[in-house]
Amino acid sequence: MVNQVIKVKNLRKYYKVHQKEPGLIGSIKSFFSRKYYDVKAVENVSFTIDEGELIGFIGPNGAGKTTTLKVLSGLLYPTSGDVSVLGYEPFKRQSEFQKQFSLVMGQKNQLWWDLPPWESFILNKEIYEIPEEQFKKTVEELSRMLEITDILKIQVRKLSLGQRMKAELVAALLHNPKVLFLDEPTIGLDVLAQKKMRDFIKEYNLKFNATIILTSHYMGDVRELCNRVIIIDKGQILYDGLLDDIVQKFAPYKVIKADLEKEVDEKKLSGVGEVKEYRDLQVIIHVPKDEASKKAAKLLGKFPVADLTIEDPPIEDIIRTVFSKGMDI
Ligand SMILES: Nc1ncnc2c1ncn2[C@@H]1O[C@H](COP(=O)(O)OP(=O)(O)OP(=O)(O)O)[C@@H](O)[C@H]1O
Ligand SMILES: [Mg+2]
């Protein structure tokens, strides 16, 4: 039987924000009578996630992703709705629950800035009551996988962003959590470090059958790691389903890229399809999906083509369409 590890039903999270009129008079007034208004960060969100799933939780800035993950981690109390993770209500912060999940935030430092990662690890060992043997083995294994064994004794403030993020991840995984909330774990990393991080997340997911929610603004992360995505915007879910299905629905075209042997008239190229770009002998043409091979053949037959590929449109473009136009276009 499938085990639903995460259950969220009609979750709302409103932040109460103190409204202050500008200037000194405003400050004095608001000191005596405080006015509040609600920021509706999450508005009636429901989803369930099965054990071992690795899902992408995506949406534009301010959509409500971090807020949702904080509620799931018990850092925020829900305004209304039901939330259950591994059978626990997160905001009760029971220690058995705390020992089974981890929240990693790419934007926020959880390691001690003035200490080397190693000492933060030891602190976590105490907090999570990790047995000595398991601790040693896990640090060794994770550090090796992420290639940071030689920086564990260097002050965190002296590490590069990528080294620090990897150390953050090791610290968060020492107690071997079954559930992981990864909030932009690859933000600001270079292409290589991003790839390492992705490989590692995938491996952790498979090795421990861990349930993972991943937010990222890099569609490469989502494309490589997640079959299922939940798209959220303005606190509401726009889509919950397979990434492939969105691609099918929103990408009725294919992209033909061709290198030409010599200059040709751009007007003539547009007889093949919609020319999106043409410079330095390289042309990018959009054609209807079901006519892709026919159009490619036409291109090959009529023009001096040195090389040609047919691709799906980039996921970035598709997701942007969903954000700007919604799901029902
Ligand atoms: N502590 C807070 N007090 C008041 N409003 C907040 C607070 N934290 C977040 N918000 C607001 O709640 C909404 C959702 O924010 P949240 O951080 O969850 O978005 P997000 O999807 O994680 O965005 P991003 O992609 O930029 O990280 C935003 O409008 C934000 O301004
Ligand atoms: Mg966020």
Description of the molecule:
This protein has two domains: 4-247, P-loop containing nucleotide triphosphate hydrolases (Rossmann fold, 3-Layer(aba) Sandwich), CATH 3.40.50; 252-311, YebC, transcriptional regulation domain (Alpha-Beta Plaits, 2-Layer Sandwich), CATH 3.30.70.980. The protein has twelve helices and 13 strands. The protein has helices at 23-32, 65-72, 95-98, 117-127, 132-145, 161-173, 191-208, 219-225, 243-250, 266-269, 292-302, 315-325, and strands at 4-19, 35-50, 54-58, 80-85, 101-105, 179-183, 211-215, 228-233, 236-242, 253-260, 274-279, 282-288, 305-311. Strands 5-6-7-3-8-9 form a six-stranded mixed beta sheet, with helices on both faces. A four-stranded antiparallel beta sheet has the order 11-12-10-13, with helices on one face. Strand 11 (274-279) and strand 12 (282-288) form a beta hairpin. Helix 4 (117-127) packs parallel to helix 6 (161-173) and helix 5 packs antiparallel against helix 6 (161-173). The chain starts with a strand and ends with a helix. Magnesium ion binds next to helix 2. Adenosine-5'-triphosphate is lined by residues 15, 17, 39, 41, 59, 61-67.
Domain module tally: 2
**SSE succession:** EHEEHEHEHHHEHEHEEHEHEEHEH
Q: Tell me the strand percentage band.
A: 25-35%
Strand order of the largest sheet: 5-6-7-3-8-9
CATH class of the largest domain: Alpha Beta
Which CATH architecture of the largest domain is right?
3-Layer(aba) Sandwich
How can the largest sheet be summarized? Answer: 6 strands, mixed
The coarse overall form would be globular
CATH-assigned homologous superfamily of the largest domain: P-loop containing nucleotide triphosphate hydrolases
What's the alpha carbon Rg, rounded to whole Å?
24 Å
Number of strands: 13
Q: What's the pLDDT, averaged over the residues?
A: 91
- Going by helix content, strand content and strand pairing, the class is alpha/beta
Instruction: Pick out the low-confidence regions.
Output: none
The N- to C-terminal Cα distance equals 37 Å
CATH topology of the largest domain: Rossmann fold
